[in-house]
Design goal:
mainly alpha; RNA polymerase II transcription regulatory region sequence-specific DNA binding; 2 domains; two-stranded antiparallel ribbon; DNA-binding; SRF-like
């Protein structure tokens, strides 16, 4: 008996959608494994479920990095450089946050106060008073 065609659209019922995802995921993994064994192909399959759970299949004796390197060579797209640039931007942002926090610590211990404006000094004084009040309340 032949199976009927189904209409390809999002399955609205979340339980049915998850069951279908699991069954089809397993079928895709089985096909990927068959391609690896029968055709000596290197296969990498990466999937994320609707709950953002990672599922992957990578041919035996192949690493994910190796697959990405081969993809990069074949397409001419530099995947690692983009990632490196993002990491550099993040590092720059974190260094700025670190610099600001260190400056704030120096101010709170009474160092480098000459470069503060009157309003900044007033705010620092209020913060210190608030911190002292909090400490006194905890001690009682």
């Amino acid at each position: 008996m032949a199976r009927g065609k189904i209409q390809i659209k999002k399955i609205e019922n979340s339980t049915n959608r998850q069951v279908t995802y699991s069954k089809r995921r397993n079928g895709l993994f089985k096909k990927a494994h068959e391609l690896t064994v029968l055709c000596d192909a290197r296969v990498s399959l990466i999937m994320f479920s609707c709950t953002n759970k990672l599922h992957e299949y990578i041919s035996p004796s192949t690493s994910t990095k190796q697959m990405f390197d081969d993809y990069q060579r074949a397409t001419g797209i530099d995947l690692w450089n983009t990632h490196y640039l993002r990491m550099q931007e993040n590092l720059k942002r974190l260094k700025e946050v670190n610099r600001n926090l260190r400056k704030e610590i120096r101010h709170r211990i009474g160092e480098s106060l000459n470069d503060l404006s009157f309003d900044d000094l007033r705010n620092l004084e209020q913060e210190m008073d608030g911190a002292a009040k909090t400490i006194r309340e905890r001690m009682v």
